[in-house]
Specification:
The chain is an alpha/beta fold. The protein has helices at 33-42, 83-105, 119-130, 172-183, 202-214, 218-227, 237-240; strands at residues 6-8, 17-22, 46-51, 55-56, 70-71, 112-117, 137-141, 157-163, 187-193. Strands 1-3-2-6-7-8-9 form a seven-stranded mixed sheet, sandwiched between helices. A two-stranded antiparallel sheet has the order 4-5. Helix 2 (83-105) packs across helix 3. The radius of gyration is 20 Å and the shape is globular. It starts with 5 loop residues before the first strand and ends with a helix.
Length: 242
């Protein structure tokens, strides 16, 4: 998989965070550039990489510069029945790429975030379902799970971002995913914004930065509680049963 299409690296020293960005079907790594630039600005010590999908797009749609679109898996004659198998077939190479880049930059899974748009979001969401301890966070823009999650990814926070006017992947898909993950005890947020279609909209990018900056994952709370000192105190009359 081509990892050199677009990269922002720290000016000095080793990266302390790793953001891996995955484009939608029929597109290319450059489509994720607005998100990459924003992440690099907010996190200057991070390595931010936009990756090209491994396969040529079935429809052979050319970009404005004459280059061809790419795909993570084929959508020709895709439906609800065959989509999960296509995703599963593409996951081993996808996961191997994430692991290789973590090793290359010396960044652990806890400090890795996978960010995807549309089909790239599908792959990111399903990758953390299939592979334990693959990434600390997932930023899924205009995406969906291939099938309803049966479990939650351990210690992975999932952030879902969607436009209310999206007709390619309706926002109900993000809402369903959020409700399912929450019911299973997962760590998830879902933001559906009005006036936005199937696009990597600046308002969705703003919301993603806000969630990264302000949302405290459950594992952080758990660690804080485990490290909190136990203060001695006298029992109240209610606790003693008087």
């Amino acid at each position: 998989m081509d990892t050199s299409a677009l990269a922002h690296l720290p000016e000095h020293g080793a990266p302390d965070l790793l953001f891996l960005l995955f484009h939608g079907v029929g597109s290319q790594a450059e489509h994720m550039a607005p998100l990459a630039r924003r992440l690099a600005h907010e996190y200057p010590q991070a390595a931010v990489l936009c990756l090209n999908a491994p396969d040529r797009f079935d429809a052979v749609v050319e970009q404005a510069d004459g280059s061809e679109g790419r795909q993570w898996f084929s959508i020709r004659r895709v439906d609800e029945d065959n989509r999960p198998a296509r995703i599963q077939a593409a996951l081993p190479a996808f996961i191997a790429t994430v692991r290789a880049l973590q090793q290359r930059f010396g960044v652990g899974w806890e400090r890795t975030a996978l960010a995807g748009f549309s089909q790239g979001a599908v792959m990111a969401l399903e990758a953390v379902q299939a592979e334990p301890m693959l990434a600390g966070r997932v930023l899924a823009f205009s995406g969906r799970h291939g099938r309803a999650p049966a479990h939650v990814p351990l210690d992975t926070t999932v952030h879902l971002f969607h436009g209310m006017n999206d007709t390619v992947i309706p926002p109900a898909a993000a809402v369903d995913s959020a409700q399912t993950l929450l019911a299973l005890g997962g760590d998830v947020t879902a933001d559906v914004l009005p006036g936005i279609a199937h696009e990597l909209h600046p308002a969705l990018i703003d919301k993603a930065i806000e969630q990264l900056r302000t949302f405290l994952p459950k594992k952080v709370w758990r660690q804080a509680m485990s490290e909190a000192p136990v203060l001695p105190r006298a029992a109240s009359s209610l606790e003693l049963g008087d």
